[in-house]
Design brief:
5-stranded parallel beta sheet, 2 domains, Rossmann fold, alpha/beta
């Protein structure tokens, strides 16, 4: 296949979903090993995908783009004449930016009705074998078959980034092995209680580094109750957080973006799952 084959992959948000999208991205790369693959996402999350070996061009747009601006960007996509477009988001935004293109679009079909029933009525129509990675792959067209292996997710951090993270941790008196903890979640009910984290961390021999956003108050609650923790919530960029995760001995956390990112970095992860309703 010639390198002038151009392929566009779209996933705008959020951290966890973009991490999961790197699995079908690998399948696309295997199907088109010599193609030029462009990944389109929001500028907030683009740093996640830096250094990714399956991406030739990383393009980002602002979440604040108006409808008129998105319509203009859609013309840019049309003029690029991609051989294939894989829309792994299926949002109003992704539909709009692909609307003017004549390229074939392979679009994720979300189980919105099943999620509605589960969230509001606690009625489960999902099969026992449901997998988000499999759901992504089911809409890639003929390049994936039911019995094909699902590739692992993948993120990359440079040696320099890891070194800078180690230096940052040294300034926080973290000199040796440590546990990375990601206790926050978009849904409060998905979080393990702070007191449970405190009880667990106080029984472990390793110091813990808390990662999250400034709004993740659970990080501050844990830090107050555990003297062996360093709270970096709200103090790191996405790339710095990834580098801290890459340096950790293992990771404990909620079903949230950075915990999925740790898996994609090849770390041993203990994920505490909770309900969204």
């Amino acid at each position: 296949m010639s390198f002038d084959q151009k392929i566009l992959v779209i996933r705008f948000s959020s951290i966890g979903d973009i991490v999961l999208a790197t699995s079908p991205l690998k399948t696309i790369r295997r199907a088109y090993p010599d193609a030029q693959i462009t990944f389109l996402t929001l500028d907030t999350f683009a740093p996640l995908l830096e250094y990714h070996p399956d991406i030739d061009a990383l393009v980002s747009i602002s979440k604040r783009m108006s409808l008129i601006e998105l319509w203009g960007f859609a013309d840019h996509i049309r003029r690029k004449q991609y051989r294939h477009i894989f829309d792994l988001h299926n949002s109003i935004r992704s539909n709009l930016v692909t609307l003017r293109s004549s390229s074939p679009v392979y679009q994720l079909k979300k189980p919105r009705w099943n999620r509605f029933l589960l969230f509001y009525f606690h009625h489960n129509e999902f099969g026992s074998d449901f997998s988000t990675l499999k759901m992504y792959h089911e809409h890639l067209g003929s390049i994936w078959n039911e019995n094909d292996v699902l590739p692992a997710t993948l993120l990359k951090v440079s040696n320099y980034e890891q070194k800078m993270a180690r230096n940052m941790l040294l300034d926080k008196n973290i000199f040796d092995e440590f546990i990375a903890v990601v206790p926050g979640a978009a849904w409060t009910q998905k979080q393990w209680p702070a007191e449970k984290y405190i009880e667990t961390l106080n029984q472990l021999d390793l110091p813990a580094v808390l990662l999250g956003e400034k709004k993740d108050t659970i990080c501050f609650d844990i830090a107050k109750g555990s003297s062996s923790t360093v709270n970096l919530a709200g103090q790191t960029t996405i790339r710095q957080a990834l580098a801290v995760l890459a340096n950790s001995a293992y990771v404990i956390g909620s079903d949230t973006g950075l915990t999925h990112a740790a898996e994609a970095l090849g770390k041993q992860v203990y994920m505490i799952l909770g309900p969204t309703s």
